[in-house]
Amino acid sequence: MSVYRFLALPLGLLCLGLGLQALANTAPQRLAEPLPALAKAFKPDAGAGAEVIVRRTHIQLDEALMGTSHSYVAVYINSDEAARDYSQISVSFNSFYEDITLEFANVRTPDGKIDSIKADATQIQSPNDENFYHDRKELLFSLPNVRKGSIIEFQYRYTDTRKIIDGQWFDSFGFHWWEGRAAGQGSRADTVHTAEISISAPESVQLVFNDLGRFGIRHQVRADQRPGYRLWRWSGNQLAAVDLQSGMPREHSYTPGLRVGTIADWHTIARWADQLVEPHLVTDSKLDKVIADIRKTAKTPADKVKAVYQLLQDKVRYVFAHVGRGGYEPHDAHEVFTNGYGDCKDQSVLAVTLLRQLGIQANTALIATRSMGLPDMSVPAVTFDHMIVHIPAQPGLTDMWMDTTGDSTLFPGFSLGIEGQPALVVDEQTRAITTLPLRPASEHYARLNLVFDKLEGQRVEARFHVELGGMFEDRLRSLWQLTPERDKYFRELFSHIYSSADISELSTRHADSLWQGFEIQGRLVFEQAWGGGDAPLNYGFNLTQLIYLFSDLRNLHKPADRKQPYVNEPGYSLQAQIDFLRPDQTHQARVKSQGQNIDNAYYQVNQSGTDKGTHYQVEQSLTLKPVRVALADYADFYHKTQELLGNRDWTISYQLDTAATELHTLQQTGNKDSGHYIALAKHHMKQGQYREALDAAERAVKQAGGQKNHQAEAYYVLGLAQGYNNRLEESDAAFKKAEAMGFSL
């Protein structure tokens, strides 16, 4: 399984790794006592699946700061699961900068025998990464007879062959041993009983390193055995196993990691990167023509930036082609354009070249993406895995971070993968790390508009329209572009809105647009949903239908199983507007239940319903606030989430209303004579609709004309309506007229 060096320098944009020579031919100097002695002194924990007995690394730096690093690991295997996970060790490396030698690898079997690695169980592989051509390889080896009760040990040596930055040295080291789980199911970091990192460096070298005191890591400096050298040593004991869980903080605060080097400030890194980038900001006649064409059509700064973004999206695809180059230095801008492909630094160099030629201030910027977590940036080093473009605020433009590497990604390509992450603007004047902005919850949204618009027999149909922003737009656009059977996938996905409905139509908008957000629309069909005629029509919707579609809140760990703090970041918003169609005028909406509003430290829910006459409209909004939940508060967060998921349904029942039926019958009457308005006035009074009753009574009197019987009753009804409207004198007068005409009061 794969092995990871803690905080290892990235293998994408800027990759530092190892090259392989061979198994050592001579007996190496061990960093630990012989395996039989280790086994005799070790007392395993019966409850642990595996335990790292010793994790030890020693680095020797010479006067030129070229390093040789020896690493030793011994692991006790105490379960079948651990035996599977540790059955194959894999180390990723970049052969451009270092060599590696596997010095030895042994197994002590449960019966005490020592078995060594076989030559045919060691191999170098080049990862099969689509669109990646680089010097990264993987050293893989498997030990024989790894099973429960075994102890495995191995030791390897790295030797620097080239410097990344001349005259400087830096690296990152973990005290745990990270081992990939079988079948690619994440990683494990087991308990470490003894962990040591030591660096022997010339006395003239001043090392800069982070403080690990909060982890119980001890630090010492003393004279080395080599004259003129000092030995720096960090050590820790009984380091607890690390439980990796979803929703953990991005910071590497859950495990100690040493960042150490000779670089005292970020200015050094910025100048180094600038010296790599600036020589490649060059054009040729072909690129000059493109720039001239842009000038003809793009007149404002904003138009010029968009034109550059459009050009790279249309003409340059993402390919990492840096075999024999080390992965740090970009190609010339005009070469990237001519080739029609380039990685992040190539595309950023081309974009900056174009922008500057168009009069726009712009620089490349190094980024540590979220795939790296949130590295400790207190010690300057080349700790970045991506490059984008920074356009500072200037006349006609606000401050902007532009990433062109996505495939048909919404302008300016600013994605969740870089939000809130460390960035270093590549400029010889840069002195410090900056942090990329975090977008508010309102910019990460999914908005559902659902309209029930057709009743046909027992069938009910509805159209839906989903608008997206931020991470939801990025994710669903990408799924639509890359999923092989995308129509089938999206039909299954959106069938979760109502599991009882079929999706009869599904389409999208703006899937390839750089300027408009991706949208999904379609129709839902509910068979045998209504009895028709006088039967009630029942509708329902719950906020959780949105939650289950767009979030994973129902998959939270139970409090007893949670081992790490929880972070909801960034925040996001889920919104819905649902229009429930009224069957006809004889049915009235009855709200049988409605969802509750919520406002706590984690969530805000607002829900309302309005009878619009032709339909009943429900509006819902859920905001998940960006919060960091300490482990001590996780139970409260979990219970508040269960309350959210238990939010009541909105249940709207359109039921036959006799009064509405009567009114509908009256309204449909073709003969609008005095008798019609008398009946209408009586209906309104029965319903307490006194203003409407008065209007109808006045029209009844007017329509009665010379019809004495109708005229008498019309005045009587008018008197009643006037009385209900507190027009008492007029009411008395109307009653007297009715009585005078022979109406019996």
What would you say this structure looks like, in words?
With 745 residues, the chain is of the alpha+beta class. The chain has four domains: 2-21 and 49-262, Immunoglobulin-like (Sandwich); 269-437, C8orf32 fold (Roll), CATH 3.10.620; 442-655; 658-740, Alpha Horseshoe (Serine Threonine Protein Phosphatase 5, Tetratricopeptide repeat), CATH 1.25.40. Helices cover 25% and strands 32% of the residues. It has 16 helices and 39 strands. The strands form nine sheets. Strands 6-5-10-3-2-14-17-16 form an eight-stranded mixed β-sheet. Helix 14 packs antiparallel against helix 15. The N and C termini lie far apart (98 Å). Residues 1-24 form the signal peptide. InterPro entries: DUF3857 (IPR024618), Papain-like_cys_pep_sf (IPR038765), TPR-like_helical_dom_sf (IPR011990), Transglutaminase-like (IPR002931). Residues 291-364 form the Transglutaminase-like domain.
Number of contiguous helices: 16
CATH fold group of the largest domain: Immunoglobulin-like
Percent range for helical residues? Answer: 10-25%
| Number of individual domains | 4
Strand content: 25-35%
CATH architecture level-2 label of the largest domain = Sandwich
- The overall pLDDT average reads 91
Sequence of strands across the biggest β-sheet: 6-5-10-3-2-14-17-16
The level 1 CATH classification of the largest domain is Mainly Beta
Low-confidence stretches: 1-12, 14-22
Largest sheet: 8 strands, mixed
- The gross shape turns out to be elongated
Domain DUF3857: 67-242
Domain Transglutaminase-like: 291-364
Protein name: DUF3857 domain-containing protein
Signal peptide: 1-24
